[in-house]
């Protein structure tokens, strides 16, 4: 089973907690929106600590290395079977400063041409209602788990 780790960023605003989500880049996701946003995350390498994997992947996908008090949010299993481990972190970030790494695939398919795409093409802060619509349904539990942690802190 594949395992990923990621970071759910958040900040407090006038209208409550805002959640930091990213949209996957590349041609397969270009016209997909609701249910396709995600926490910045990626595969955990062999013998890698999940939090270290989450920090590494966040830095690659967003363009800055997060630091601070990481709070474990547990794990969820996505529809395809991948297990995702998440950590919450409060931070400020201007989403227009997104700087994602890239990947290369043959595009269009069977064309023999290679094209590069950003791994993450957008990042935004969302209120709870919007985040719940945008996020991959399996990851929506992370939003509620974070709210519960914040309520009890």
Describe this structure in words.
Helices cover 21% and strands 36% of the residues. The chain has 153 residues and is an alpha+beta fold. The protein has one domain (3-151): Nucleoside Triphosphate Pyrophosphohydrolase (Alpha-Beta Complex). Strands 1, 2, 3, 4, 5 and 8 form a six-stranded mixed sheet that branches. Strands 6-7 form a two-stranded antiparallel ribbon. The termini are far apart. The model has no long low-confidence stretch (mean pLDDT 96). It comes from Pedobacter albus. Pfam families: NUDIX.
CA radius of gyration: 15 Å
Supply the CATH architecture.
Alpha-Beta Complex
The CATH class is Alpha Beta
The CATH homologous superfamily corresponds to Nucleoside Triphosphate Pyrophosphohydrolase
Assembly status:
single chain
For this structure, the CATH topology is Nucleoside Triphosphate Pyrophosphohydrolase
How many E strands?
A: 8
* pLDDT averaged residue by residue: 96
Pfam families: NUDIX
InterPro entries: NUDIX_hydrolase-like_dom_sf, NUDIX_hydrolase_CS, NUDIX_hydrolase_dom, Nudix_hydrolase_domain
Keywords: Hydrolase
Protein name: NUDIX domain-containing protein
Question: How would you sum up this structure in a few lines?
Answer:
Helices cover 21% and strands 36% of the residues. It is of the alpha+beta class and 153 residues long. The chain has one domain: Nucleoside Triphosphate Pyrophosphohydrolase.
């Amino acid at each position: 089973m594949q395992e990923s780790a990621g970071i759910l960023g958040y900040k407090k605003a006038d209208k409550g907690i805002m959640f930091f989500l990213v949209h996957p880049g590349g041609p397969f996701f270009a016209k997909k929106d609701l249910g396709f946003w995600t926490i910045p995350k990626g595969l955990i390498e062999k013998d890698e600590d999940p939090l270290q994997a989450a920090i590494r992947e966040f830095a690659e996908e967003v363009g800055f290395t997060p630091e601070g008090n990481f709070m474990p949010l547990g794990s969820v299993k996505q529809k395809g079977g991948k297990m995702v481990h998440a950590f919450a972190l409060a931070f400020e970030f201007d989403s227009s400063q997104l700087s994602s790494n890239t990947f290369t695939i043959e595009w269009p398919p069977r064309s023999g041409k290679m094209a590069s795409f950003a791994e993450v093409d957008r990042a935004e802060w969302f209120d709870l209602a919007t985040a719940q619509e945008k996020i991959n349904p399996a990851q929506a539990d992370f939003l509620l788990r974070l709210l519960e942690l914040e309520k009890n802190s």
